[in-house]
Design brief:
This protein is an all-alpha fold and about 100 residues long. It is about 55% helix and about 0% strand.
Length: about 100
């Protein structure tokens, strides 16, 4: 929070949508500080409520930062490849995630 949003945007400039991501990082840090006493929540429901955090990133955070694996991280690329390989038959990454986890 001590890093100004503009400076943060410069630091993450190589990634796409860096201005939005800098804004989301700042907002998420503020929420984590105020609502969770500075500790990142380790449940998917709380994480996806944070700005800029979707299902894939929430699952990744829980899988890496806790002892409990909570699922497979599925982005658009995993979704498309899984459908091409006939491992899943879905129209959305969240559906693909569910189908892959049923294996």
């Amino acid at each position: 929070l001590a890093t100004p949003r503009e400076e943060l945007a410069k630091l993450i400039h190589p990634v796409g949508f860096y201005n939005n991501k800098a804004k989301f990082i700042h907002q998420s840090c503020e929420i984590i500080k105020n609502k969770y006493s500075g500790l990142v929540p380790l449940d998917v429901k709380s994480l996806i409520a944070l700005p800029g955090i979707g299902m894939k990133m929430a699952v990744l955070i829980v899988n890496v930062c806790s002892k409990d694996a909570c699922g497979i991280c599925v982005d658009v690329h995993v979704h498309r490849i899984s459908n091409r390989l006939k491992w899943a038959s879905s129209k959305h990454p969240d559906e693909t995630k569910g189908q892959l986890e049923e294996w």
